[in-house]
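Morning!

This is the sequence you dropped in the shared folder:
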Amino acid sequence: MLELKDVRKTFNPGTINAKKALQGVDLHLNAGDFVTIIGGNGAGKSTVMNAIAGLWPIDSGTIKINGKDVAGLPEHKRAKYLGRVFQDPMMGTAATMEIQENLAIAARRGNHRTLRWGISSKEKKMFREMLAVLGLGLEDRMTAKVGLLSGGQRQALTLLMATLKEPKLLLLDEHTAALDPKTAAKVLELTDNIISEKKLTAMMVTHNMRDAIAHGNRLIMMHEGRIIFDVSGEEKKALTVDALLEKFSQSSGQEFSNDRALLS
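The structure's back. Tokens below.
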């Protein structure tokens, strides 16, 4: 479903501020894989996600989604393959529009544009059923403005919108980092349920080592723009935070230095 080969990206090349963000990243995801990505500050976690999404061009390498090479496509042309949820709950939704209007935009994504905008009774019924699954009471507030929702409610809605058309690949960029622990746990539970029920292929960047271990079927650790550890299956399930820290030290020759990850 996803294949990266020798992907490289340097920011500010040829200057004193040159930063090698990705240094020959190779990655292969099968359909249905749910991969968590952990690493220290500047490891390349979000950079590899932005490379896949097409936020900026890579210097070299190939990126294939479902067999199609998208490395040369701009961001808006890759959007039809991807669903994405960002760290900031304010992104991904239109604050001044109603909940049902936001869902209607997501539902009609990629469809032929017409002058018709009104939301049909069939769509309203479908949206109500989808929202009810979240267990947040939003099905009874479909005409409420999204800007009135809490961060957790808004992030849950964004997750629903990002997966409504069942993307080839779901990108989760620290999507619970801005939430309190209880709300984050709820959003992660919803994430697991949606990915499992829709059999989605997903990547989740997180700073929380426990979450990286507990969720998904595969864990990747990055350091200085490279993948230094890749574990899946029973070996991943048996991991502990201490074992993960030890593996980082063995693979990188350094101590793990991300305070957010260590304190989570």
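Headline: DSSP finds ten helices and ten strands in the chain.

More detail when I'm at my desk.
O.
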